[in-house]
């Protein structure tokens, strides 16, 4: 399939990504090697103009926030935020502060707010117990979001390890269909999983891999401009698991493998006088739906590899070093 112009999730119109990267050696034993990544579904007010969304939990060893309501109501009303396991609370607070500042009605004259935060454990390289991520870092990641964003060991991906080498943030996109029925499917992956012997491109990895570490996790975000509802988006999210599997992972017991999908084709207003919603959705049996499935699978697989291709050898706590793959 054809790739988008940027070959990233930002090929889906309106989607932008922002990072804050924290990299500081504290002393010989401790280092801050972590960050925050924000995925914005559009440039407007996310609470007032929600987007359809769904999630799929392939393996639930994770500490995400907000997915219960996403699946219950089928909408996303905030950016999707990514960080390390012990910084979910700080990122949740910072995102809350940012959104309350722009929406005085939330929690007062209207309903509360559902925020979505995903995480992976970066404690091999990052002194995670220091909880260096602050609420202001979440707001900064949102404010600086752009369609042209960095990949690799940046943002939430700064301290992540994938298949025994440096992982992090990766993204890719595919164009599904043609003519009037042409849509984009994009994936962004936060990769922190797998062992060297599993990966399909093992020959491209260095011989030495980190010592035994937790099973790891991956958060995958899928975006599309195809007009889909929450049920259909969950179907797309499930296909991302196939793309993940193509890279070789066995999905271990201690791995949090979570996929969040949303569409930018239409928004759902927070306030509406009519009791009815009139939407035009893509039929499940249309050939473009099958093409979207393929696009999600391919872009997810490539997003994992892009996280490796863009990453750099990274130094972390206790003198640990995680090398980049041999891709040059």
Automatic annotation (TrEMBL):
> Which keywords belong to this entry?
Aminopeptidase, Hydrolase, Protease
**InterPro entries (UniProt xref):** ArgJ-like_dom_sf, Peptidase_S58_DmpA
Q: Which CDD domains match?
A: DmpA
> What molecular function terms (GO) are annotated for this protein?
aminopeptidase activity
Q: Which residues form the signal peptide?
A: none
| PANTHER family cross-referenced by the UniProt entry | BLR5678 PROTEIN (PTHR36512:SF3), D-AMINOPEPTIDASE (PTHR36512)
**What family does the Swiss-Prot or TrEMBL record give for this protein?**
Belongs to the peptidase S58 family.
Q: What is this protein called?
A: Aminopeptidase
- Source species of the chain: Planococcus plakortidis
Upper lineage ranks? Bacteria, Bacillati, Bacillota, Bacilli, Bacillales
